[in-house]
Design a protein that fits this description.
7 helices, 22 strands, six-stranded antiparallel beta barrel, 373 residues, Thrombin, subunit H, single chain
């Protein structure tokens, strides 16, 4: 064999050796990757890493938590003169003796002369309203217990965190969609939302916010955490064309703090200052009552009249004074004044900060009981 041919053969063998080595290394690497992927899938059901590097996340199912609460949630029908005037939802929070106790919203059962509940087995039964309160927007309905009714476990909204998975069970739009489940996250806590009572925006509620779908008929149903525990009572949502998925629920701790009075049908005792008041923005009413405000005053509650034998009548307040703080909490309007005022009990003494002719003053008021005329 000529020298040139020998050199070509050596080069050919060397190249073949290198290429063969690279091929074996490539096969070895891919085998290890596939083995690791299989091991990861076996040891960790929540995540796995594909060969492409894409992370696949499996959040799991809420079905077990839904099943845990499902038989404790019911559709509620509000009848007036044997006609259905509205529907809503409610949930069983307690069973005692022969009866189950259902929590719902006041506005779900308001003005009804008959209440019925539809269980998860589709049977319609009669309910008895024990007590309700417009400001709390809570009511308690008593029904006969049965094997098809479960108690919903109660959780703690205080321990829930923003971003936690939550879900609802309810009857949006009535009977056809009863038992609907929607999920989302806890979007906000301690939201102060102004609501209308008797046609005026005169009340503020502290609520939980969620992006889980809330629709007419969900009212009174539970907001539940991922464990299937009730952390809130669905109460309202923002209804604006540019707003999506902003629903609100009453924290379960707040609801349960009033449950004894509601079960007994007792009126919730609330304190009063003993004044008639209007917002600083109500220029027409102020004009009619001959009240002129200092130009620097933009927010607050204006005293229009003081009731006799009330706490305010024994204080330094006068007509035309503008209340700006209650125990150092800012008061921007009448709704916020009621919100702060109703944190206290009859007989307690509070400090009111007010503005009179551009000067800030304070006075103390001992609260008396509010009684509807």
């Amino acid at each position: 064999m000529k020298g040139k041919d020998k050199l070509n053969l050596i080069i050919y063998l060397f190249v073949a050796f290198v290429l063969g080595g690279l091929l074996m290394y490539y096969i070895s690497i891919n085998t290890n990757l596939n083995t690791n992927t299989i091991n990861n899938n076996s040891n960790n059901n929540s995540t796995c890493r594909a060969c492409s590097g894409t992370v696949i996340v499996n959040d799991g199912s809420l079905s077990a938590s839904v099943e845990k609460a499902y038989d404790g949630v019911m559709m509620i029908r509000n009848y007036k003169n044997d006609d259905i005037q509205s529907t809503g939802s409610g949930f069983v929070y307690r069973i005692s003796g022969d009866y189950a106790y259902v929590m719902t919203n006041h506005h779900v059962i308001d003005k009804a002369d008959k209440i019925t509940l539809i269980r998860s087995d589709d049977k319609e039964i009669d309910g008895e309203v024990l007590g309700s309160d417009e400001y709390l927007d809570l009511a308690v309905v008593k029904i006969k217990k049965s094997d098809s009714i479960d108690v919903c476990a109660l959780g703690k909204s205080e321990e829930s965190k923003l971003g936690d998975v939550v879900f609802t069970i309810g009857s949006p739009l009535g009977y056809e969609y009863r038992g609907t489940v929607t999920d989302g996250i806890l979007s906000g806590k301690d939201r102060l939302v102004t609501v209308s009572l008797a046609g005026t925006n005169d009340w503020v509620m502290k609520v939980l916010q969620t992006n889980a779908a809330v629709n007419p008929g969900n009212s009174g149903g539970p907001l539940l955490n991922s464990k299937g525990e009730v952390i809130g009572v669905i109460s309202l949502k923002l209804v604006q064309t540019e707003v999506e998925n902003m629903g609100f629920a009453i924290p379960i701790e707040y609801a349960m703090s009033h449950i004894e009075s509601l079960e007994k049908g007792e009126a919730i005792k609330r304190p009063m200052l003993g004044i008639s008041m209007v917002n600083t923005t109500d220029t027409y009413t102020l004009y009619r009552n001959g009240i002129m405000l200092h130009e620097d005053i933009k927010e607050g509650v204006v005293v229009v009249e003081i009731s006799e034998n009330s706490g305010a009548s024994k204080s330094d307040l006068k007509k035309g004074d503008v209340i700006t703080k209650l125990n150092n909490e800012k008061i921007s309007n009448a709704a916020y004044l009621k919100y702060e005022l109703y944190k206290y009990s009859v007989g307690e003494t509070i400090t009111i900060t007010y503005n009179r002719e551009g000067k800030e003053k304070t006075t103390k008021i001992t609260l008396t009981e509010y009684k509807e005329s």
